[in-house]
Amino acid sequence: ARPRGGAERGGAERGRHPGTMAAEELAGRRGRAPEPGPGPGSAGGRGGLEGSPGGARRVFSPAGEFREFSRRQLRDMERLFRQYDAGKDGFIDLMELKLMMEKLGAPQTHLGLKNMIKEVDEDLDSKLSFREFLLIFRKAAAGELQEDSGLHALARLSEIDVSTEGVKGAKNFFEAKVQAIHDSSRFEEEIKAEQVEKKKQAEELKQRKAAFKELQSTFKQ
């Protein structure tokens, strides 16, 4: 004879509509812990997932939404974002932003950093997604950032030229970057001088090796 418990379960299952069972099974699958989120969407056109205040997630295409920037500009912004996304979770949090501003030579107070995030934090999660990071440069190119603000300093010192034709305020933003470019020229000159010195040393080493081989052949004769 079948166990009573099994019969009861079997009867209960026969009494449930197949659609109800499928829905419950699907809900069970969805009850698993979420997978880690991906990084920022590729500037080359492949979208990434971005959160929204309601919890829904949508595909984000940088090239599609930020058409005022060239693909090269978007790649430069993505490279900068990934450089300071130390946790590699697709976001720049307050501590990562703190390090970023220190590296750029414009350190901010704790309150200043919070205000920087707040100005572009559309989903109110207190950190910067890649899309929100791009909003900084959109605002900078449109002349919508206060000159003494942390976001203006970030955009000005990042060495990403967003002076795109047709963008309001882009000319002024480009002019504001001239000083930052001038400050970096000395560094570039030092790099070039170092490259010339390395080339010179390599040539001298080559000549010494040739002279040594010639000396060896003389002794062997």
Automatic annotation (TrEMBL):
InterPro entries: AIF-1_EF_pair (IPR049025), EF-hand-dom_pair (IPR011992), EF_hand_dom (IPR002048), EFHD1/2 (IPR040365). Keywords: Calcium, Coiled coil, Metal-binding, Repeat. Residues 1-16 have a biased composition (Basic and acidic residues). GO terms for molecular function: calcium ion binding. Residues 40-54 have a biased composition (Gly residues). Residues 184-215 form a coiled coil. Pfam families: AIF-1. Residues 72-107, 108-143 form the EF-hand domain. Residues 1-63 are annotated as: Disordered. PANTHER family: EF-HAND DOMAIN-CONTAINING PROTEIN D, EF-HAND DOMAIN-CONTAINING PROTEIN D2. This is EFHD2 protein. It comes from Brachypteracias leptosomus (short-legged ground-roller). The gene is Efhd2.
